[in-house]
Amino acid sequence: MHMGRPVKSLFEAHFRRGEPADLNALCAFESRAWTDRMSRRSLRRLLASPSAAIVVAEADGAITGAAIVLFRANSRVARLYSIAVDPEYTGRGIAKALLAQAEKIARSRQCRSLRLEVHEKNHCAIRVYSGAGYQEFGRYAHYYEDRGHALRFEKELGFEKERAPSSAPLRLEQAVVGLAPPVADSSR
Fold first, then answer.
1. Residue 39 in domain
2. Kind of pairing, strands 77-85 and 11-17?
3. I need a labelling partner for 87 at 20 to 30 A (CA). Which of 65, 79, 164, 166 fits?
4. What is the mean pLDDT of residues 98-107?
5. pLDDT 10s digits, 157-170
6. Is 184 among the domain residues?
């Protein structure tokens, strides 16, 4: 019996700016995606803060990924504070798409670069960052609870020809973004 080639289904996710109404869904997402999750109070504060931006990925009626970008007054360096994908949705390009949205937000705020820290043993994330053009520039020794080192990465952000004025609110596309179908995780 000839089975033929498998048909690849296209996974679709919506990306948008997080808002206060997302608090319950973000808390539920945090409990699925992290062992050292943020408190409800911290998430509420970040959702309301003018010095933070949260981007959420939605699929199948739920938040499947989130990225938090922090900004400091009078600084042109943004910080990717957190990026996470629901374990059931890894390997589909959500992290890469969230990273691109985080960069877009930083550019819209006139930032020249985006920095982040990543656990030295998080090889999947390191591949995503390196593949997106991030360069390692340092490390923090014993940064994480398990005493693991944090690798510091940075990417210089090129500006698009038409930049939004820094006082204008950023509007993320509400469009559907087609992402790769699930890929078997060879790291397990």
1. yes
2. unpaired
3. 79
4. 96
5. 986 544 443 433 33
6. no
